[in-house]
Design brief:
The chain is built from three helices and twelve strands, in the order ββββααββββββαββ. It is α+β, with helices and mostly antiparallel strands. The protein has a single domain, classed as Sandwich (Jelly Rolls), CATH 2.60.120. The strands form three sheets. The protein has a six-stranded antiparallel β-sheet. Strand 8 and strand 9 form a beta hairpin. The longest helix is centred in the middle third of the chain and has 18 residues. It is globular and about 40 Å long. Bound molecules: 2-oxoglutaric acid. The site of 2-oxoglutaric acid has 10 residues, from strand 11 and strand 12. 2-oxoglutaric acid (AKG) binds next to strand 11 and strand 12.
C-alpha cells in the first residue's frame, strides 16, 4: 500500500479554503468547453487527505453496496468548498453545487477511462464539474469527442480544476494510468442536481 508523503511546501496551519476570485484561470478548449484552474485552492491539504482517507467508507466500484449508494461522512471543509464554488460560479451556473463524489486512486495503476459525465441533465445541457484533488499529483486528460489531440492538466495537491460549458458533451476526460511511482490521490467532484 502506498502512503502519502506530506508536502513540505504546504505550510498552512490547519485546512484553509483560499479565495477563488481572480486566482481562477480559464482555459478555453473550443466548442463551448472550458477548464478553470486554481492551483493551491485548499491549504493544509495533507490534513484533509488524512481525514478523508480515514473517514470515508471506500469501496470498489464493482461491488454492489446498498444498491450503489453509501453514506459518506460529511467533512465540514467539503461543505465550505461547495459553498465557495457556488458563490464563485452562481451567476454563470445559475444553480448551486449540491453533491460531492469521491474517488480514491491508490497508486498509478488506479485510473479512470475516457468518458464524459453525460448521465442526467448534462446529456444535453451545459454544466460544471468542479474537482478538488488531494494527495499525489495526477493528470486529468481531455480530448474532443469528434477527434483531435488531447490536452492534460496537472491535478496537484489542493488544486481545483473545473470542467465547464459544453465540456461533458463535446469532450471526454480520463485520469490515465502512470508507470511513475506515485502515491495515493483522492479526488472530490462537486456537481449540480441531476448530473452524474
Ligand atoms: O479523479 C478525477 O479527477 C476525475 C474523476 C472523473 O473522471 C469524473 O468525475 O468523471
Amino acid at each position: 500500500m502506498s502512503v502519502l508523503q506530506g508536502s513540505l511546501l504546504d505550510l498552512a496551519d490547519g485546512i484553509e479554503v483560499r479565495p477563488l476570485g481572480t486566482a481562477v484561470q480559464r482555459i478555453d478548449l473550443g466548442k463551448g468547453a472550458w477548464v478553470d484552474r486554481r492551483t493551491g485552492w485548499v491549504g493544509g491539504a495533507d490534513e484533509l487527505y488524512g481525514a478523508l482517507r480515514r473517514d470515508v467508507p471506500w469501496y470498489a466500484e464493482r461491488r454492489q453496496m446498498y444498491e450503489g449508494i453509501v453514506d459518506v461522512p460529511r467533512h465540514p471543509v467539503l461543505d465550505e468548498c461547495r459553498d465557495a464554488l457556488t458563490a464563485h460560479y452562481r451567476d454563470e451556473l445559475g444553480e448551486p453545487f449540491v453533491t460531492a463524489g469521491l474517488c480514491l486512486y491508490r497508486d498509478g495503476q488506479d485510473s479512470v477511462a475516457w468518458h464524459g459525465d453525460r448521465v442526467g441533465r448534462s446529456r444535453d445541457e451545459d454544466t460544471m464539474i468542479a474537482i478538488l484533488s488531494v494527495g499525489a499529483p495526477r493528470d486529468l486528460a481531455l480530448r474532443p469527442r469528434d477527434g483531435g489531440s488531447s490536452v492534460r492538466f496537472a491535478a496537484g495537491h489542493g488544486d481545483l480544476l473545473v470542467m465547464g460549458g459544453s465540456c461533458q458533451r463535446t469532450w471526454d476526460h480520463c485520469v490515465p494510468k502512470t508507470a511513475r511511482p506515485v502515491g495515493p490521490r483522492i479526488s472530490v467532484q462537486f456537481r449540480v442536481r441531476g448530473v452524474r
